[in-house]
Structures are given as C-alpha cells and as structure tokens.
Amino acid sequence: MNNQDLLNIAAEFGSPVYVYDAEKIESQYNRLTYAFNQVDSLKINYAVKALSNISVLKLFKKLGAGLDTVSIQEVKLGLKAGFDPSKIIYTPNGVSLEEIEEATTLGVQINIDNLSILEQFGTRHPKIPVCIRINPHVMAGGNSNISVGHIDSKFGISIHQIPHLLRIIENTGMHINGIHMHTGSDILDIEVFLYASEILFETAKHFPDLDFIDFGSGFKVPYKPGDIETNIEELGEKLSERFNGFCKEYGRDLTLAFEPGKFLVSEAGKFVAKVNVIKQTTSTVFAGIDSGFNHLIRPMLYGSQHEIKNISNPDGKERFYSVVGYICETDTFATNKRIPEIKEGDLLSFNNAGAYCFSMASNYNSRYRPAEVLWYNGEAHLIRERETFEDLTRHQIELEFNHSKKELSDEN
C-alpha cells in the first residue's frame, strides 16, 4: 500500500479515513508465532480493544488467532465474527458479577482480577474453569496511563495476596485452569518482562491443574524510522526456553498464551486527513486538518508520536509545521515538525494508526466518526461507512416544549 493507493482511497471514500493493511497485520502475526516456534502449544489472542472492526476480527480468525476481550460487548463481537467461544478469553476490570456470569453463558474463558468477585463467582459457579489475573508489581510501559502491573495499579490480584487467594479457592472448590499477567504497553526492556515472567512461574506452582499461562503483551512497536522496539525474536528465544523448562518442572505441557493488540495492528494503520487551512502566526505555521482528537486522541491522551507524511507532496522542500485539528479545544498532533511543504487541500497520512485510534474515536463537537477501509489483496474494501447526521440523532429522544409553565398549570 503506497501513497497513491492512499490518495485513491481518500478520493473514493472521503477524508478523514482510516486504512488498514491486511498484509502487514498478517506479517506481524507470523513474526510473533515464528518467534515462539519452539513452544509446542502457543495461543495468540488478539486484543479486540485495539481495533474492533468485525472484518479485522474475521481476518484474525482466518490467521488462526483467538481473541482477548475486556467487555461483554467485545465478546459478542467476537462471536458475531465467527469465533468459537473456546477461542475467546474475557478479561474485564471492575465489572459487575452479572456481566461475568453473562459471559459464562456464552461459553468463553473467564479471567478474574480481584478477590471479591473471585470469591462470589467461585461460591456460585465452582465448576466453571477460571483464569486468575496476577499483579506482579513490576513497573513496565512507556506511559503511566498504560503501565498496569505496578503496585498501585487497579489491575490484577497482588502477589502478596496469594495466601488469601488460595483460601478462597480451597473454600469454594473452584477450578483454576490458567494464570495471567499484563505489565503494560510499550515494553522496551525484555529483561523486565522476563523478570515478571519468573514471578508468574513461581505463582503457577500453587495451582496443580493449569492448562495455560498467559503472559499478556505490551510489546513496543516503532513509531518512526530507526525507532526502538521490543526485540520479539530475542524474547521468543529466551522465554520459550524458560517456558519449556518450567513445563518439565510442572510435570506436563501447558499452553503459552499472549494477548497482543498494538503489536499486530498499529503499524498496519494509516489515518488520512485533508489540510483545511495553513495559518501563519508570529511564531508558528499551523496546518489545520479536517479532524481532531475526536478521531485520534492518542497524541493528546498519551503524548504518543505519530509520524506525519504529506502524501500529496512527498518530495517537497521540508518546512516546519504544527499540525492541529478542528476541535474547539487544543488538539495538537505535532509541534514544529519537519514535513514536506504543505498546501491547503493536501492530504496528510498519520502512521501507526491501527491500534487504539478508531476504537477511541468519539462524536465530540457532534462530528461524525470516519470511515474505515481494509487494504486486502491489493484492493480497498470499505469496512465501515462514514457516519451521517442521522447516526448522531438515531438514539436521541426529542421532547416537545410547546407550552409555557402557566399554560401547563392552567391545563391542570
């Protein structure tokens, strides 16, 4: 998928528009599975929250992946996409017991991350297999908002609460078939990941009937040429050897599971937007586009850096621009970045727009959410239509205020 393909897509489907390259998704999936080819039983559960379009889920089903879901709605999306319930793990946080029980009726693997719900669930459903999410108290991740395995995190059951956890399991007689951790996103140092894995291995020894160990994900992807990323190949070699060794200690083979999202879809995504206005101030040249943080919030929320290219003039002389949106609040995508000369009407492409971009889009300022396109086998396929005004008002209920307060009083 090249610049001309993106220009053609924008011409056909309008801008702004999200475009996903199926070939890149497949290559990332194959890269991860190959890195762990020394493990007899490997399960890759794609994290639906990263990009939940049903056509993308169907692509992962074709590749042989399972799904990692965090809400009952994501579970139902997976089922609608054709996944067998046994291929779906449900890992919520802070949801009601009723939602978890609803997920059990759909036949998916349950993963529980707090003692209160675990005890309630075990008391009511002791025969339903449950995975437990452990908090290893390891600080990992590129931003405090996406580091979820440290001691102050709301996620997981603390390793210091293992005695309490074991009492609940003994008292309820429940069946624990898996343990899980997720330390955070944008992991750079695989030694930190391996250290957390050792904590998980030690924890696993408390549970004699496991089927799998889920190591989460959080692998960092490059955001610009030469950017650092998680060394998946080295991690695969080291963790596979350690995992295989643990299985021998444990007495039988287990499944090694991961739940990658960003690693699989981030680099596959492009976000294409049109430049509405070039605005020169006393100190800055702004390129204002036909989008904002209503469509791409990550730079404002996480400080994430998305490389921006002028696909209308890729070989132009580079100048400094601050790329901003049309939202009635500050929505800056880039500040004083070198970009080939931009003119009004040019199309800009944002890299790494596959993960946590459309899935976090909103209708703020009553703007429509954009279309989504899947580039598959050299062709563009529309997989979500651009919203319309009717979509904005579809579920609103209009009240009629035809009478004054006095008129209403007189009628009564």
From TrEMBL:
Its EC number is 4.1.1.20. Homodimer. Residues 18-354 form the Orn/DAP/Arg decarboxylase 2 C-terminal domain. It comes from the Bacteria. The active site is at residue 328. InterPro entries: Ala_racemase/Decarboxylase_C, DAP_deCOOHase_LysA, De-COase2_C, De-COase2_N, Orn/DAP/Arg_de-COase, PLP-binding_barrel. It catalyses: meso-2,6-diaminopimelate + H(+) = L-lysine + CO2. Specifically catalyzes the decarboxylation of meso-diaminopimelate (meso-DAP) to L-lysine. Belongs to the Orn/Lys/Arg decarboxylase class-II family. LysA subfamily. GO terms for molecular function: diaminopimelate decarboxylase activity; pyridoxal phosphate binding. Pathway: Amino-acid biosynthesis; L-lysine biosynthesis via DAP pathway; L-lysine from DL-2,6-diaminopimelate: step 1/1. Keywords: Amino-acid biosynthesis, Decarboxylase, Lyase, Lysine biosynthesis, Pyridoxal phosphate. It is an enzyme of class 4 (lyase). The lineage of its organism: Bacteria, Pseudomonadati, Bacteroidota, Flavobacteriia, Flavobacteriales. NCBIfam families: lysA. One of its GO terms (biological process) is lysine biosynthetic process via diaminopimelate. The keyword S-adenosyl-L-methionine does not apply. Its cofactor is pyridoxal 5'-phosphate. Substrate binds at residues 298, 302, 329, 356. This is Diaminopimelate decarboxylase. Pyridoxal 5'-phosphate binds at residues 218, 356. The keyword Amino-acid biosynthesis applies.
